[in-house]
Write a structure and sequence with these properties.
Largest sheet: 5 strands, antiparallel
Structural class: alpha+beta
Order of helices and strands: HHEEEEE
Radius of gyration: 15 Å
Distance between the termini: 39 Å
Number of helices: 2
């Protein structure tokens, strides 16, 4: 087993906004550079959706309607924490556990 990778980033917004933007992965993920559709068919994916709930899917949809499962939400605590099994189109047994915490740093 590999040691966990820990990364911290501070963003200029409140906790709720940071969480909301993160969960809306389709708004920031570079589908034109990194998607299963691009790797398999040469065209970027049409969309990336996250079902914001425990057990929810992270699902890419290609231009032709083909769906690729990227992962599953394991734990979901709105505006505070999300964890997911993330495998981006690979077999689920190869998934990495990704945990993201959203911590208030100050009044602003």
């Amino acid at each position: 087993m590999l040691d966990p990778i820990t990364y911290t980033i501070e963003v200029p917004c409140n906790q709720e906004t940071a969480f909301t933007v993160f969960v809306d992965m389709g708004s920031w993920w570079p589908l034109d550079k990194r998607s299963m559709s691009l790797m398999g068919g040469g065209q970027p994916a049409k969309s990336l959706q996250v079902e914001p709930k425990s057990g929810g899917k992270i699902l890419e949809t290609g231009q032709d309607g083909t769906e690729h499962l990227w992962g599953t939400i394991k734990s979901f605590d709105p505006h505070d924490f999300i964890s997911m099994d993330f495998h981006m189109g690979l077999p689920p047994e190869t998934a990495s556990l990704v945990e993201v915490r959203f911590t208030i740093l100050g009044d602003d």
